TrEMBL record:
Active site (record annotation): E47 (proton acceptor), K114 (for glutaminase activity), C150 (nucleophile)
Superkingdom as given in the UniProt entry: Bacteria
Record InterPro entries: C-N_Hydrolase, C-N_Hydrolase_sf, Gln-dep_NAD_synthase, NAD/GMP_synthase, NAD_synthase, Rossmann-like_a/b/a_fold
Gene name in the database record: nadE
HAMAP family documented for this protein: NadE_glutamine_dep
Family recorded in the similarity comment: In the C-terminal section; belongs to the NAD synthetase family. Belongs to the NAD synthetase family.
Assigned EC number: 6.3.5.1
Any one Pfam family match given in the protein's UniProt record, by short name: NAD_synthase
Pathways per UniProt: Cofactor biosynthesis; NAD(+) biosynthesis; NAD(+) from deamido-NAD(+) (L-Gln route): step 1/1
Annotated GO MF terms: ATP binding; glutaminase activity; NAD+ synthase (glutamine-hydrolyzing) activity; NAD+ synthase activity
PROSITE patterns reported in the protein's UniProt record: CN_HYDROLASE
Chain positions recorded as ATP binding sites: G289, L290, S291, G292, G293, I294, D295, S296, T396
Protein name (record): Glutamine-dependent NAD(+) synthetase
Length: 545
């Protein structure tokens, strides 16, 4: 008789870091659904699915092993389906393993420890784990299945070792964070492993926001010849069934979600990041300052798409330099999206501060101090609303501004989550155009907000480009310096004005102290500020080669 097909379900789920019992219950329920509703023989979960990813120093807590053991007791109750899931496992020598278990009817069929522990960019796995060294293969319905975990698939040795141990199919548990273009990179890497080993691969990825990281899902199954048999959607939870023909050593064709383009993928990533950060942290909703400018308009749209208009409050806080057009546009944005909107003038506060400081500032001319007083007055109002209502303050600074310090500490930087922190200004414009195109009859961002020259409106006739290079130039210099680590001399050699490059890079370096005090925000580029880029605030490094 021909071997029965192997029915696999990819559990692309959103887990809460540190909620070990809650995550175990999620796994048990997903396994039951896969078994009962999809007739699955095996359900595959993401990396470290018991703890969520990344658990960071929670892995150092004394009660970790006890909590994991209690969660495993719950999973041992699941019957009639094989669970392949990730967990931290204590090795015999006391070290900690980033492990995967295959378990059926309470019995552990095989254990695997991650071989390749990433320790760059946003990863710190060598801080916590010791590497595994052996392949792990188990048999299900006549198919010999090898296990790998996330980074393992980006290297040749683990997959080859699994093949040498007899594997006919590879399962890869993942917690692979998003950046623009990452889904395509994953396909390329897995395709290379398939070509090298001649094995088909099932790639199951985590989905959800965790602090500054976004896990985009996008799980897939790839045939040995590199063809994609299943492509799960990005930024969505779900259980995705797959059938493996044991005789043909191929997957039967399954669903094919379309991978979105740049603007859609980034926008949806921001929505997911806001939704998870707010909901997992227990906030009632969000509040933000709505200036009539493009950054706050985009932030408002993202917040509404993430949480619904009933959980979003927008506050316009005008001063004498606020243009009438800004007042009109802010009101139009709030009205279109249906959020609670209020107008609170900061004039009384600014004047009170100025009067209080008049003697201290006697004989000194006006400068950035007076501009910053305006921004800080707005910050005080937003934080007061946050405290009183239990709403998280969303800040609205973009990556271009945060890079060069074009923001006010304890002013427009005051808040808990910066939605655009890793979004360059040029991409802000593109995201606004994309979002408007999704609602052509009622675009949330007035076109003239997109068309107007950006301004902080802290001084008469102020424009961003009075203080900064044009954004297309600025963003390309910043990309080369921050994301690609190019030196000043390399950037200048690429055709950029030397004085401009020196000035921009100097601003980036000088403003590290501001960024250390800034709200976190979702990472959408290859290198954001936070886990990705760790530079000393005080240092003697000189810009040059």
């Amino acid at each position: 008789m021909p071997a029965a097909p192997l029915r696999i379900v990819l559990a692309q789920i959103d887990l809460l870091v540190g909620d070990i019992p809650g995550n175990a219950e999620r796994l048990a329920q997903a396994a039951a659904t896969a078994r009962d509703d999809m007739a699955a023989d095996l359900v595959l979960f993401p990396e470290l699915s018991l703890t969520g990813y990344p658990p960071e120093d929670l892995l150092l807590r004394p009660s970790l092993d006890l909590r994991v053991d209690e969660a495993l007791a719950r999973l041992r109750e699941v019957r009639g389906i094989t669970l392949v899931f990730g967990l931290p496992e204590r090795a015999r020598d006391g070290g900690l393993l980033n492990a995967a278990w295959a378990m059926r009817d309470g019995e552990v069929l095989v254990r695997y420890a991650k071989h390749e522990l990433p320790n760059s960019q946003v990863f710190d796995e060598r801080r916590y784990f010791v590497p595994g060294e052996r392949p792990s293969v188990f048999e299900q319905q006549g198919v010999r299945i090898g296990l790998t975990i996330c980074e393992d698939i980006w290297h040749r040795a683990p997959a080859r070792a699994a093949r040498a141990a007899g594997a006919e199919l590879l399962l890869n548990l993942n917690a692979s964070p998003f950046h623009a273009g990452k889904p395509v990179e994953r396909h390329q890497v897995v395709s290379a492993r398939c070509a090298e080993t001649g094995l088909p691969v099932v790639y199951c990825n985590l989905v959800g926001g965790q602090d500054e990281l976004i896990f985009d899902g996008g799980s897939f199954a790839m045939q040995a010849d590199g063809g994609v048999a299943l492509q799960a959607p990005v930024m969505e939870e779900g259980l995705f069934p797959l059938v493996f023909d044991a005789a043909a050593k191929r997957f039967l064709p399954a669903g094919q979600a379309v991978l979105p383009g740049l603007e859609e993928s980034v926008y949806r990533a921001l929505v997911l990041a806001v939704r998870d950060y707010v909901n997992k942290s227990g906030f009632k909703g969000v509040v933000l300052g709505l200036s009539g400018g493009i950054d706050s308009a985009l932030t408002l749209a993202v917040a509404v798409d993430a949480l619904g208009p009933e959980r979003v409050r927008a506050v316009m806080m005008p001063y004498r330099y606020t243009a009438e057009i800004s007042l009109e546009d802010a009101e139009a944005e709030a009205r279109t999206l249906g959020v609670h909107y209020s107008v609170l003038s900061i004039a009384p506060m600014v004047e009170a501060f100025s009067e209080t400081l008049a003697e201290t500032f006697a004989g000194l001319g006006k400068d950035k101090t007076e501009e910053n007083l305006q921004a800080r007055s707005r910050g005080v109002l937003l934080m007061a609303i946050s405290n009183k209502l239990g709403y998280l303050v969303l800040t609205t600074g973009n990556k271009s501004e945060m890079s060069v310090g074009y923001a006010t500490l304890y002013g427009d930087m005051a808040g808990g989550f910066d939605v655009l922190k890793d979004v360059p200004k040029t991409l802000v414009f593109r995201l606004c155009e994309w979002r408007n195109a999704q609602s052509p009859d009622s675009p949330p961002i007035p076109q003239r907000v997109i068309d107007r020259p950006p301004s902080a409106e802290l001084a008469p006739d102020q424009k961003d480009e009075d203080s900064l290079p044009p954004y297309p130039v600025l963003d390309e210099i910043l990309r080369r310096y921050i994301e690609d680590d190019e030196s000043a001399s390399t950037i200048i050699a690429a055709g950029f004005d030397a004085a401009t490059v020196q000035r921009v890079l100097r601003l980036v370096d000088l403003n590290e102290y501001k960024r250390r005090q800034a709200a976190i925000g979702p990472r959408i580029t290859r290198r954001g500020f936070g886990k990705d880029r760790r530079y000393p605030i005080v240092n003697g490094w000189r810009i040059g080669n």
